[in-house]
Amino acid sequence: MNSFRTADSIRPKSFDDIVGQDHLFGERGVVRRMISAGRLTNMIFYGPPGTGKTTAAEIIARGADMAFHRINATTASLSDVKEILGTTDNIFARGGILLYIDEIQYFNRKQQQALLEYIEDGRVTLIASTTENPHFYIYNAIISRSSLFEFKPVKAEACVGALRRAMAFLDGQSGSEKQVSDEVLLYIAKSTSGDVRHAIGVLENAYFSAENEITQDVVDEFNVRIGNFDTDTHFDLLSCLQKSIRGSDPDATVFYLAKLLAAGELISVCRRLQVIASEDVGLAYPLAAAVTRAACESAKELGMPEARIPLANAALLLATAPKSNSAESAIDAAMADVEAGMGREFPKHLQSPLFKGYKYPHMYPNHYVEQQYLPDDLVGKVYYEYGDNKTESAAKDYNDKIKRK
Predict the structure, then answer these.
(1) What per-residue confidence (pLDDT) applies to 116?
(2) 223 falls in which pLDDT band (50, 70, 90)?
(3) Euclidean distance between CA atoms 248 and 96, whole angstroms
(4) Residue 169: φ, ψ to 5°
(5) What is the distance, to the nearest Å, from the Cα of residue 372 to the centroid of all Cα atoms in its chain?
(6) Is the pLDDT of residue 245 over 90?
(7) What is the DSSP letter of 323?
(8) pLDDT band at 153 (very low <50, low <70, confident <90, very high)
(9) Which pLDDT score, from 0 to 100, does residue 228 have?
(10) Confidence class for position 4, pLDDT limits 50, 70, 90
(11) Contact predicate 275/267, CB 8 Å
């Protein structure tokens, strides 16, 4: 028997058989309700591997009166996509095409853009899956035309049910009747961090290695990864890292950094640390952004394991630095007014040297002169509030001084 074939052989055939995603496919699951109502829209499934994304797409496809095509973006090219899309010559053809793209994050921007024409006119309904944050890897125009659904790590207790089905399948295929306790199945489920496919693979290997009973010792021979089953996920760990830095806890910070790096999340860590430098430290220590940027670039050039050192420097610098979100608050408030349509008419003396009345600040004491900068309908509006840290307090004192407050 080919290794890991069992996971494909016992793949769920209906929503009732999918484990661990009740919020999507349970009796009141949002996707199940939508499909039951006859609504099939473009969808993006995101979440850890082995949680049912491909299975769900196949179940949806079987219930739809559409031609189903599946490609994997790790090996497919733009010509493969165009070949499939070329079969949609008649836009009014019955059913249309349901295209499933696995690991869509491996398609570049040009490849993703090629899908838009067909998605927009309805010839293709897209279901895409990714293990990454879709907002980082999927073209915004595709996201705006799709519904996003998160697949969560499967809880150990739910995974045991899938492992029991795998045991029955293995017994039937091999003509044997081997024993395994619920405790060992639960151990496998917990040890594989919510990845059902991996759990079944571990069980399959242990099955053919055991004589009459699968024990924990047999399972351990396959070096399963041990992790915190409920929270050891890509998005949760990044959130834990940021909240620990924001909370000025250096010990928790370095722990979550270690967990992320052990999971191979170097690029995600670099991206998140640079966000934190501006979002949570900000103007309290402006140099933090430059130091973090340098550390991240160094880490990407070095690679693991050396990358852990500059990243630890950056993370601990951010965790122990003073904090301020004043810049984020200011830009959010300003953007809210822009979106509300305010400030459309700018002061004429600011627009061009051709307009009279502009006062050049460098010609005045302290390089400051009072004049109107905001549009008329926003005069007096305050977006930026100085933070209560040394750097911003010093800036406030300076500004109060030159403005004679």
Answers:
(1) 82
(2) low
(3) 54
(4) -65, -45
(5) 43
(6) yes
(7) -
(8) confident
(9) 42
(10) very low
(11) no
Which residue from 304, 212, 191 is spatially nearest to 258, judged by alpha carbons? Answer: 304
The rounded Cα 263 to chain-centroid distance in angstroms is 15
- Cα 277 to Cα 247, 250, 258, 289, distances in angstroms: 13, 15, 19, 5
How far is C-alpha 193 from the geometric centre of its chain's CA atoms? 17
**Is 330 in contact with 383 (CB distance < 8 Å)?**
yes
Question: DSSP string spanning 365-379?
Answer: GGG------S-GGGT
Mean pLDDT of 257-277: 90
Count of Cβ atoms closer than 10 Å to residue 217 Cβ: 10
Average pLDDT over residues 357-385: 91
Task: State the number of CA atoms in the 13 A half-sphere of 277 facing the CB.
Answer: 23
Residue pair 153/194 in contact (Cβ under 8 Å)? The answer is yes
The two tokens of residue 39 are 């609504």
Query: Is residue 151 within 8 Å of 197, Cβ to Cβ?
Result: no
Residue with tokens 């309904």, as numbered in its chain? 125
Cβ atoms 97, 42 nearer than 8 A: no
State residue 234's pLDDT score.
67
381: Cβ contacts below 8 Å, ≥ 6 apart? 337, 374
Q: CA-CA-CA-CA torsion for 122, 132, 329, 295, nearest 10 degrees?
A: -140
Please provide the average confidence, as pLDDT, over all residues in the chain: 85
Q: Residue 70: in which H helix or E strand, if any?
A: strand 67-72
Confidence band for 226, pLDDT divided at 50, 70 and 90: very low
Residues 6 or more apart whose Cβ sits within 8 Å of residue 344: 375
Distance, in Å, from the CA atom of 63 to the CA atom of 37, rounded to the nearest integer, reads 12
Instruction: Look up residue 335 and give its two tokens.
Output: 């953007």
Query: Which residues does residue 70 pair with via DSSP β-bridges, in sequence order?
Result: 100
Q: Which amino acid is at 103?
A: E
Q: How much is the pTM?
A: 0.54
Among 91-100, 271-280, 374-383, 392-401, name the one with the lowest average pLDDT.
Answer: 91-100
Neighbours of 110 (CB within 10 A): 9
